[in-house]
## 1
Amino acid sequence: MNWTAYVDGYCERTAPGLWGEPLNDLANLAFLVAAGMVWWYANGQRTGRVLAVLIGLIFVASSVFHLVATRWGAVADSTAILFFTLFYAAVFPRVFFNAKAKWSWLGAPVFLALTIASGALGGGLYLPALAGLAGFAIALGVKRDSYWLDFAMAAAVFALSLAFRSIDDVVCGDFPAGTHFLWHVLNSVVLYIVAKAMVGKIREAPAPDGDAGASV
């Protein structure tokens, strides 16, 4: 496989070059803003800071990919997103349902398996994330946890984000910049919502060891 192969997957990009997707790259700044806001809100909390760093990693990886437009850049971008989702899936059961750490971490391989299966079956790599957000909202709603609303909002925003990502090529003829930049902006909102919810939940009911995410 040629890892340096040119990737032209977005409406805005019309040729190789570091500044071939200016709007997409500028929109990545939304991830940096989200990371900074989560870091500030965490106020020293370990899990919150890990989430902030992971969002910052998404900013870096996505920025690099949309600058270099290569296969290795695309892999780095997807990997950064995967790191955040796997960490979140591993910590979520412990934080919101008081699951023991030895069981909570299983959320990560379960999510990874669902993502691989969805991709293999043609459902796309992001469908499990949308289903997960909706599932979290439903589960917390049944539990009568007020944070269900945060995940319901995150699911709604992510569904809209996916829609904009899907129509990038469709609107290209009428809107040369495309709509992928909105995928970045809206995803940063999603990441902020779910990270803030986790930080808030830990703050309300800290685990006996002082931080629900410390042992994950």
## 2
Amino acid sequence: MKEYIQFIRHLLWACFFMATMGSVILYSIGYESHIWGWLWGVIIMIAYTLLLAVQSSKLMSATAENVTARTAINLIQRLILVASMAVIGIKIPSVDVITMGVAIALMQLIMFCMYWLLGNSVMSAEDNGDVNIAKLSDNNKNN
């Protein structure tokens, strides 16, 4: 769980860094009208990350039988969150839709890369004796 908390922290720092750098770049090249779309896209991804963290922490206490159903429900909840916030962004006149979409797409790419990089570093580290859901489900299949 310690590694997962570290992963969420890294994602949130990446979101804040992308919000700042994207805003600075858009301002410096004269696209000030696109900054609100950029920030709204990053806010959507921050909300997505926080919901993912809350849902994942609840999954840690779930039984192995409930994990599959809960995971599907959690996925649908996160998609609804992103879609509803995107619709709200479309309704706000100062939010540029294309910039919002670019921010969401870039943040998804960054999240995937961070997950892949941090996941490889955790997988290559020694097992510290923590029991995780994957090990529980593998043990249940063997029994």
